[in-house]
Amino acid sequence: MQQFEKKELKKKSENISDWYTDVVLKAELADYAPVKGTMVIRPYGYAIWERVQEILNRMMRTKGVQNAYFPLFIPSSLLEKEKQHVKGFSPELAIVTIAGGEKLVDPLVVRPTSETIMYAMYAKWIHSWRDLPLLINQWNNAVRWEKRSYLFLRTTEFLWQEGHTAHETEGEAIDMVLAALEWYQNTYQEFFAVPVISGRKSTSEKFAGGKETYAIEALMPDGKALQAATSHNLGQNFSKPFVVSFQNREGKIEYVWQTSWGFSTRALGGLFLVHGDDHGLILPPKMAPFQVVIIPIFKKGLEQSDLITYGQLLAEDLEAKGIRVMFDKGDNQSAGRKFNAWEVKGVPLRIEIGEREMHDKTVTLVKRIDGEKFTIARAQLGQEILQLLDSIQQELFQKALEFLKSNIREANSYDEFKAIMQSKRGFIKAFWCESAECEAKIKTETKATTRCLPLDAAEEKGECIYCKKEAHHRWFFAQAY
RNA sequence: CGGAGAGUGGCGCAAUUGGCUAGCGCGCAUCGUUUGGGACGAUGAGGUUCCGGGUUCAAGUCCCGGCUCUCCGACCA
To answer: Which residue in A182, A201, A406, A443 has the most C-beta neighbors within 10 A?
Structure first.
């Protein structure tokens, strides 16, 4: 019995954070690396990141954003040009002080984000309004020396895309900021099947050096919120110190209006946490590296090669329909072991083929989401699977949406607020006067921070939940990841 | 950076008051039998017990110093 238990996954229903770590390791998404806080993203996990790249690249192309690559090292003198920016990042910088065996006069910062190095270049490239807008994205890594790390959700080194644009007018820049936010929201909702709240950040939560920050916030099963991606309106805060200026249509010198926005591997953590159950991961079909796994069941007296041919043709048919298929045809693992392995990895559909199916020209189909098992004729399989994948995608989103909806609560008094934080957590909508003092006190006393003010939040009259002074909006609060 | 815990084959663990050739399960390799929910048998490989120093006839075990990891807090995408 004991040996059996060791094979089991930790239960999501019992302890979500143990489950999460366990499932990330066992599904072979990632593994711990030798340096504290770093991880290896393994092929299965990286395939999911590549899906994200495809999705976001496609979205970025619609607006003409181009990919490029800027260096990893930033001279510290450059980083220091924008005061709020250095101040915000300095506690978590990794700095190279010795290189080539010599002490560096100007140490090199390993990028925590690339505003400074990119804008030093933008200053060189932008001279006229005709050079605008400049729309560049890069897929890269960044390093922030986190004191406490967590697979995917907070690693010392992480992967992301960072988009950096420069515009002629602030209006254009704001359009860009909101467009990026919408891309992120779509990625999360339509592809990850995770509903989000998108909105503006408070002053204390905004990007160091920026003017306004917008974010998408997703609710995790433990009632904590995950800031899944951000989009910043930088105003002219960087263009001034970096002298990114241009001659406008009237011939006058002006500073550009800038934006930056990023979507990191952290977002994958949210994807893994939200879906999934005691048996492991559940990947939404649109993100799954394999949407279908075909498992042959060999039997004595059954010609193995016949079954493999049957499976091979099946796989080719499905692939021709654009379905991502894994045919796990090896004969050195029992079928049961394969079932379990692919369940942990969250493949949405499993096809079992054996003697019966081959004889009847059918397949046995099993849904990961609920374990439902049925037999269908091979002839209709492709169509059936496309429909199933679609309905599973919807079902996952609906489930997550219901969870989100039932975990958004209004608090009209501070007592009510505290009571919610002590029990179910989730999002709390409450009036707040927008003073940093109240925000800080609420955080210390309840762990909840302001998450955002939704874009469509109505202007209302109320009193701050903490100080009872006048307030105009109900902000979203939650304990953050 | 504070608090707690832990470092023993790849992984999970064991090793009596300090005592014999450091064990067990999983995994791995070879061969055979198997395969409809984590198969079985036989054989085999694999160890500087985190590092450095000390005490002792004798150290995985005790002492000192260091390092690393995990969890919990403050900081953060």
So the answer is: A201
